[in-house]
What we know:
Blueprint: H1 6-25, H2 29-37, H3 39-52, E1 63-64, H4 65-72, H5 76-88, E2 92-94, E3 99-102, H6 118-124, H7 127-134, H8 136-142, H9 146-151, H10 155-161, H11 163-187, E4 194-199, H12 205-213, E5 217-223, H13 225-237, E6 244-248, E7 261-265, H14 273-286, E8 292-297, H15 309-319, H16 327-335, E9 339-346, E10 351-357
Parallel strand pairs: 4-5, 4-7, 5-6, 7-8
Antiparallel strand pairs: 1-3, 2-3, 8-10, 9-10
Helix pairs in contact: 3-5, 4-5, 6-11, 10-11, 11-12
S-adenosylmethionine (SAM) is lined by residues 156, 173, 177, 200-202, 205-206, 223-224, 227, 250-252, 265-267, 270.
Amino acid sequence: MRPPPPAVVRAVQGLSAALERAAAALKPAQARFLEVSGGVAAVALMRAAVKTRLVEPLAAGRKTAQQVAAELGLHADTVHRVLRGLAVYGLVRLDAGGRFTLTRTGRLLLEDSPHSMTGWIRYVTSDAVLAGWLRLPETLADGKPAFNEATGTTLWEHMASHPDEEAGFARTMHELTLLAAPLIVAAYPWPEHGTVCDVGGGIGSMLAEVLRARPTLDGVLVDQAGPLAVSRDYLAARGVGERVRAVQGDLFEGFEARADLYLLKDVLHDWDDDQCRQILRNVRAAAAPGARVLVLEWLQEPNVAAFPVSVSDLMMLAQTEGRQRSAAEHQALGAAAGFEPGRVTDTGVYGVVELVAV
Length: 358
Ligand SMILES: C[S@@+](CC[C@H](N)C(=O)[O-])C[C@H]1O[C@@H](n2cnc3c(N)ncnc32)[C@H](O)[C@@H]1O
């Protein structure tokens, strides 16, 4: 299916934000306040649903809580109350006969649905990620990375020493990347020939979609051992395994990967400005003059509050040393590492900020 053009995506986002603002303005302040603070319940319910696979029995159709509880060996009254809570947030529908039906949003809670987002829920509600959020008051005072201070380790060190969470995180990024990939692939004039290198490319979700769209391109995937181990089967399943060379490399120590085009998708937002300059210098060292880098990020203008980019920026604050940046900020980082600015494309979701090696 062809993705909608960026102008349509932006128009839908603008209209939906305006309608949400109008709906909020209709309510008394206290009611709206309680609604916003109720978000904690929504996240807790989604976490419980994923952990217990609560909605799996509903994949086959409408059921009562008693039927769901019997299938899963759970407590029927609690199942009813939790599913009713999920109905408040639009993940299931409850009819007058006490039967629950999955909505299209609720289907994302199914483990094996094509666009499952269970990895995302597991990740954002993991103990380590929550520890970062809970450290936010102290970070407001000292500006130190919340996750690192709360856990005594960086997110990436934590992942490397918790292989289950590392695999879960790779799945999370994969889920998010698959959502955006069609828009990104449609938005950029990819070359027909040459090599594309995805730096910090995870299991290769983005690279695979680019290679599928351009059957005569080759790929290089640079990441750490954990994601690369998962990438082999994934790239083979997407039919591009033969065209991708995997390079275990470190963003900060440099890597050998000569390519015409480098992708940095959701990588720079994990790091502070000095670290980003180092990463870009290492990409520049690997690249020939004229090679291009595509920074693929949600773009955050300093004085624009918008969903999802401003929330993603806070996630970076709570989990990493990074932030979401504007196109101009990415271009300034690139200039310090030997790149001049190229075109900037807004896909309506992700920005594509092109940097050209000089
Ligand atoms: C937020 S994920 C983005 C993954 C992928 N680009 C995507 O958008 O689906 C960041 C990636 O950077 C990788 N990474 C983190 N630190 C790294 C390092 N020091 N060297 C190489 N890769 C690293 C992680 O393993 C992870 O795959």
